[in-house]
Amino acid sequence: MRINQEMLLKIARDHIARRVRKEKDLVAVYLTGSVSEGEPLLGGSTDIDLIFVHKEEPPLKREAIRVTYEISLDIEHHHQYFYTYHRRLRQNPWIGYALCNHQNILLDNDHWLEFIQASVSARFDSPENVYGRAQQFAEKARSLWFDLNDCQEVRWEDWIALYFKTVGTAANAPACLNGPALTTRRFMLDFTSRMETLERLPLIGELTRLLGNENMNDTLFKQWRPVWEEALEAANKQADCPVNISRVRKAYFLQSVEAMAESGALHAVLWPMIETWLQALSCLEGREHHQKWQQFLAALGFTHDQNESLLQGLDHFIDQAEHLLEGYKNEYNL
After folding, report:
1. Are 64 and 72 within 8 A, CB to CB?
2. Strand (E) positions, 20-150?
3. Domains in the chain and their CATH numbers?
4. Which one of 12, 101, 102, 123 is separated from 116 by 20 to 30 angstroms, measured CA to CA?
């Protein structure tokens, strides 16, 4: 089966037509993510990201629906009041970009979303809004770093989870100077291309080191890939399994990671593995799963006695991001 943009849009429209007949409170539906950007496939798999806007409080915040093994629908549900202060969405690094593209609108009763879109699009690319989208990540990353540096005793597993959260947040600060917030699958691929555009190549190397890529190799990937998959499968047996790693999205992560590894982009493999593994562990209580996770971290060089070194490296990376944003701010007299 040949997957293309036209097919994916038809799948989305057909699904919306079925939902409209059942859900009378649907106000609007619009497309986000890689399908809206025209580059949906990675490893032959993709998801179709949709946002449903309701008049009433939706019973679900997010759902994933299987279309085929390679294709799933990832639907986020919003109440209409989310858009009350629509000008603020100019500084939303996730959905702001989607709202600026008229072609993303797939359902719009009474042209309500067109009005919202016109407001968000106005001055969306102005320096103050670009800076605002990036700066929120820099501020959050620095706040998280202070939490990491707190001398209070915390479990190693909790500490390292916060460490990775801080790394991801910090990476988004410079990345959002020329694009939306980074996604899990394309995290390193998009970060690399954006830093090349900004001529900040050293940040690429720093980020790969923060994620443990210095110790990553093909042998290690082949050893731990099935263990990672085992954790995802185990999480799917739990009632509280996060939607992001639900079974219908299996190919979305597994095939993309395999494709990146086979193409020689091992530096891009670690983030989706780490992010989804952590999500799986959030609903797994079995000691075995947590022990294997810690063994994987040790293979990458992440051990408790490395905390101070990790903190220093992360501090420097955040400093560089803050310096870049400060330069942008001064350039535009913000």
Report:
1. yes
2. 26-32, 46-54, 62-66, 71-79, 105-108
3. 5-121 (3.30.460.10), 127-321 (no CATH)
4. 12
